[in-house]
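Q: Can someone sanity-check these two? First one:
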Amino acid sequence: MRQRTLGTLTTSALGLGCMGMSEFYGPGDDAESVATIRRALDLGVTFLDTADMYGPFTNEQLVGRAIAGRRDEVTLATKFGIQRDGNTRSINGHPDYVRAALDASLTRLGVDHIDLYYQHRVDDRVPIEDTWGALSEAVAAGKVRHLGISEASVETVRRAHAVHPVTAGQYEYSLWTRDPEDAILGLFRELGIGLVAYSPLGRGFLSGEITDPSQFDPSDFRRHNPRFQGENFQRNLDLVAEVRSLAEAKGVTPAQLALAWVLAQGDDIVPIPGTKRRTYLEQNVAALDVTLTPDDLAAIEKLAIGSDVAGSRYPADTMASLNR
């Protein structure tokens, strides 16, 4: 497995997003999920991503069981900052909460340190300097090796980085979500911060395997995502058909083409496609062997998928929680 460097952290060029194993994408199968994580490690995909709010809490426990006895092979990333009480969510960046959340995650994961600890969402009520002061203390105590941030504005990243170096930022980035190109990527390259690209397959849409909203389980959050609803769904389906056409011409799957595109955007970018099945994991890993020529990249760029995609990437209330 090729390696990439995120700031000062070296890890596998492709990661594995574990969220969907426990929630948001329909029913899970813990046995298959554990087998998928272990297969990922066998294939050299050692960068695993989870968060305390996935489940909530159960995804960290699942990851902890899967890596038991193989901790030294893993670059382990988790996140704090989104509190859940039933169906209610809130953002918390208070220093006391940072400390409590970190200790709880260490216990659930069954480890003595976390390789990359992200602030999942920014609490606008708490100065970022206070939150990152507590995170810096965690690094000094040896509980955390590197710090990250997610969905934060340029100004917030600069302020956090002034307290303690930001190793990586996790942002949605794919052929149909190119927001980081507006300013964040430039800032990251200025400061030496890596980009972890979540949902690099557009929440599965870019795989080309989603053809009708009825495919989604009632518990699947995509039923409520604007890009998967009504007229937006069909418009986006038409865009994916264009991706499929290019992929077929190259002899790869649409998902592999989409992942190869993200990988081609810079060696400081690590995509973390999520899956809960070994079959899809192996297909995703094969994207590392797909080389996109300048002509391929130009053809993809002509599709203008990022500007033509219909619908916002989250419902309005969730979009409002992002730090802009």
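And here is the second, same format, sequence then tokens:
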Amino acid sequence: MKNWKNHALVLILVIIAELIGVIKYQFGPGTIVLLPMLYALIFGVLLCPKFLKVVNDKDMKDAGTLITVSLMLLMARYGTMIGPTLPKIIKSSPALILQEFGNVGTVFLGVPLAIMLGLKRETIGAAHSIAREPNVALISDIYGLEGTEGQGVMGVYICGTVFGTVFFGILASFCAAYLPLHPYSLAMASGVGSASMMTAAVGSLSAMYPDMKDTLAAFGAASNMLSGLDGLYMSLWVSLPLTEWLYKRFYKVKYGVEAPKIEISKVNPSEEA
């Protein structure tokens, strides 16, 4: 009950965001999809101490510890979408699993750009993945969200929530219109571990292929769920070590000195509590 204010504010924001609903705009062959999650994020930012001051720093830290709990409800929702089309998903399971290796491309693209833009240890959190909920939890557990790595992952997480849905909705439509790819493959590709981005992409594809609507949603949800599951281990065992290695190499190239070592004094806020 000590976090009753946070829970009350979340309930109010969810109701307002859901009342606004999904807003779609046509953009060439694509569709810009604005989802309730985007509105909730914007409203939440307005409540922080720098604006309306409805919440304080302690409320914000307490809210951050509840991210992992909310993922349980999200994964349960995925399961209800996948079940009815499980036979088709099983036939495509190798493609769904192997696609996770494509996310490693984020590291090779993100690390050089981040170093070039002047980021330091923030690069580790920002470039090791697309920084969705499981990745935020991973960085929080290893480095702590109070450190520079935590700042990096949260920065990309917020940018992904604000711009990711719009980008994915348009990109999926353009790929379906101009590339010789099957809609099922595009639906699979949309499942990168973000429910909002996947929903925007599948929504655009469903508008273009209404007869495949249910199957597209199932493939997208299955791909997204697998990205959230095996993607976490991919980040832990492959992407994160690779990001650390590339960071040291590119840091030395740009600054001519060895990259500073991680500060051992950083402690996970949940451990302090």
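A (reply): Looked at the second one. The chain has a mean pLDDT of 79. The beta strands are 23-27, 30-34.
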